[in-house]
Amino acid sequence: MNSSTQLSANISSETSQLLERYVPAHGVKKSHWIETAVLHHRSALDSIPADLIILPIIEVSRATGNTILDRMAHPKPATVAVRALFDD
């Protein structure tokens, strides 16, 4: 028989809502779903070369975030090389 350990973690309210909707809809317990997700994720990380893994969340500083938002709101015109690439 497998032993178990209680785990406590803070997650976003959005993730919690996803979990709360998924569990009853699929008839599984939260603990089973979380353990399966962790094992699946770990297996994927072990199977994929580290340099090909793109994390689902990228954290940046507030200044960098503001720069990104500004560049999205005010994009620079495409270069000749970029236009040529997309024209093909």
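the 2nd protein, sequnce then structure:
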Amino acid sequence: MAQSIPPERDQDALDWARIFVGIVSLHPENYGLSSEQCSAFQARVDSYGALLLAATEPGTRTRVTVQLKNGARDSLRGAARQLIRIVDAFPATTDATRAALSMHVRDAVPTPIPAPATQPIVNIRGSGGGVARLLLRDRATPDKPAKPRGVLGALIATVLTAPGEPTPEFPTGSFQAIVTRTRHRLALPPDSAGKTLWVQARWINHRGMPGPASAISSVMVAA
């Protein structure tokens, strides 16, 4: 039977998480992750490490410290699985990358999974303060908040232009982020205020296969 990832045993899970975050934090963009995601996971790793120590040292081991350790472990495992799904679906991820991160290597002959057939709709619900708030819906079911069946998340591509410039081209395969929720706060560069933000998205399945591109949405970025 294949080993569970993250491992089941407390110390093994901590060791795996430390190695995983140590690797992906060096260049998060190479794994489809953001520096914020890595920092948040590092904080979980540090918290779990401290609670595990308290729950195993004879002088601090109590029912309370064990319960706190178990809660932190479950939280860490849930967060780890979320990051693993993102890395696994990232188009640039190879089997060598998965092996280096102690992730499961895909089957040599994987079960065919079709690419998403529908397009997302990108609603820009506001911008300013260094972020733009995105709301994604599926074109086939625009009134439902859920992602389509078999979809992991969306590839997000953005372009910033000076006011009045025409709609830019979005080359196939270009994107800046992969998101797994239908609501997303998109971080913007410091000099974005007053520029036009253009956004395009594609659904992506659990094997990293993208669907058709959405229509391009735009907004003037507020200060």
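The longest strand covers residues 151-161. The radius of gyration is 20 Å.
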